[in-house]
Known about the structure:
mainly alpha; 7 helices
Amino acid sequence: MRRMLVGMSQEKLGEGLGLTFQQIQKYEKGANRIGASRLYQIGRVLGVPVEFFYEGVQIEAASEDGGFAEAEPANFDLDMLSTSEGIQLNSAFFAIRDPKVRKRILDLVKALGEAEGREASGTPGEVRREGGESAGGADGAD
């Protein structure tokens, strides 16, 4: 993803890591796992800290009976991120320098996604009037 955002080819990334572009393809498709040291190297070549690869990942405390069992997969589609539209969206978003503006855009997108999810499931949502006051919630009360 970051590789595509900076316009770097798989071949160029591979050269920076001493790998073939085929190996980079396997990493990107998830066919091969990436070890910690390799992830660090990838971050250096792409100019990002290792934490970049974990943005948005929620870490949950291991339950007593769950041990190291893997959590349920998150509800998002990574394939969308590698589409032309996904790359354009990410490029435009990260071009915004003000973190407050990025946060407001993120909140807007989340709200739109939640509203669409409610629409699809038939669950009524709350409509907000200008100024933020409620125009009736799920129970129909004002």
